[in-house]
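Notebook entry, structure prediction.
Reason for the run: the old model in the group folder had no record of what sequence produced it. Starting over properly, with the input documented here first.
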Amino acid sequence: MGCVRANWMAPPGRVVPSRFLGYGFPEVATTHNGLDEDFRYGQLAIEGRLISPDQFDAAMDRVKSTRRPLAEILAEDGAIDRQTADRLTKALRRIVRDERAKSEGGLHMKKQIGGYKLLRRIGEGGMGEVYLAEQLSMHRTVALKILHQKWADDEEFRKRFLLEARAVGKLSHTNLIQVFDVGKYQGLYYFSMEYIDGVTVEDLIKHDGPMAVEKAIDIAIQVGEALTYLAAHDIVHRDIKPANIMVTKDGQVKLGDFGFIQSAYDSQLLQEGTTIGTPDYISPEQARGERNLDVRSDIYSLGASLHHMLAGKTMFAGSCSQVMRAHLEVRPPQLGELRADLPVRLVRIVEKAVAKEQIDRQQSPGELVRELEMLKIDVGTGSGALPATRSGILNVINAEKERLAQTEKLVRSLQAQRLALAVACAAGWAAAILLLILHLAGV
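New structure, fully documented this time:
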């Protein structure tokens, strides 16, 4: 089974783990012509959580003694399967090609792309770099996402990049990042979107640790609202995770990065059995490489993200393949044991969202949102205040109506059962009395 991580490639200039420094990385004095490439290959494998630093150390000792490529040794030892080893090699070649292009005057040297003036680089996603830019015609600040030059000639990545832009450009929801424009300039593919002045949920967890219950619930509710909207448009996001959830300074949540949405293009872009997404939050059916996912896959990923928010760590740890296998086979750690202050109902909601079988999860984002809204009343600073938004209040009212309707249905069912039992008992007593009378009469 192939495994494609949404964020597994380290951007150029990323700090190298200390173990690499012991070997003189990246300025390696070596007698093996490919050793520098082996070090970089190892760095990608470690940052992609395909191997551990200890596995790298042991493999590099063999590289030095045998002068064989690191990829070959890792595959031979079973640390990485052959298919993944080949993909990692191709990824490294793309990175080297991109660095060569930049050294010759690449994207970072440009000051303007189309009608956009580049101000500064603010991030990098799975397929492109993101710049803070000024849209000259509108005199507004935007975020400009540009497809990596190394993939500009790759039809698969180019199609998926354009798919993301065109699909999201048709959407409009308060909890989705708005796309304004898509285009091509001197061989570069790009699209502009609203600039969000905020931080990702992943950054919040890294900086502050486990989130306050009410804050985590509020973020999950807003993502759930976005998923409800996407589901209405027959779109499955397939990469819900804290890194793709932005929070503005006023607490508004924005879901972004639609590079892996499910669409009609999938049959053209993906080979059978290929898995896309981020292993830490991937649903079991997605990990199996199933096609035609539905919104319940996103519900699982949101549940895994909510677990991360509340526990301060992901549900499972290990290599890419180990984590994916755990989503398929291993029961998640008990949230209530990891954090004693969590409401029991919240723990149950998360457990339901990350159930292995789709039928055991909430069947729609709306159902999940209603459960969280009802819980929010109980935990909201102890005041029991209603949600602030009209939709939130309506969700609570509807959830309460459903609860009352179910209770009334149960009561009617019990009453009917009791009536039937009473009638049966009365009939039994009547028959017994009749038999007794007949017996006394000698009939």
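Summary: The mean pLDDT is 77.
The old model has been moved to the deprecated folder.
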